[in-house]
Amino acid sequence: MTTQPSSDLVTFPNPRPVRDFTIRIDIPEFTCLCPVTGQPDFAKLVLEYVPDELCVELKSLKLYMWTFRERGAFHEAVTNEILDHIVAATSPKFMRLRAEFNVRGGIYTTVIAEHRQEGWQAPELVALP
């Protein structure tokens, strides 16, 4: 196999750093292992962020997500770990990671973790008629 998992998150310059805009990335096939049973856990991840100077490159993000396939991790821990790594790579103004794990034993788990750059305020929502 030529493509391998990689923990290297590649970035590129924000093409419009003077404007706040939101990037939303849906990751519908995230997998990791239950640290108790070793069985696979499946989740849909939704990453939303307002970039500052850097954006995350999508292929590197895909390869990064692949690094969790053989790792045991609690839902809460893996969600926060992923957020921490992407924040460290991009230093965004705002970032939210929503991890919606598939049912296990009749229970669904959703974990939402956020990062907010100190002093950053979300722009006021404009409602159009």
Summarize the structure.
With 129 residues, this protein is of the alpha+beta class. It contains 2 helices and 6 strands; from the N terminus they run E-E-E-E-H-H-E-E.
Radius of gyration: 16 Å
Assign the CATH topology. GTP Cyclohydrolase I, domain 2
Alpha plus pi helix count: 2
Q: Return the CATH architecture.
A: 2-Layer Sandwich
Which ranges are low-confidence, i.e. pLDDT below 50, for 5 or more consecutive residues? none
Strand order of the largest sheet: 2-3-5-6
- How many E strands? 6
Described by strand count, sense and barrel closure, the largest sheet is: 4 strands, antiparallel
Amount of beta strand:
35-45%
- N- to C-terminal separation? 52 Å
Total number of domains:
1
Oligomerization: single chain
Mean pLDDT: 95
Structural class: alpha+beta
The CATH H-level homologous superfamily: GTP cyclohydrolase I, C-terminal domain/NADPH-dependent 7-cyano-7-deazaguanine reductase, N-terminal domain
Name of the level-1 CATH class: Alpha Beta
Question: Rough shape?
Answer: globular
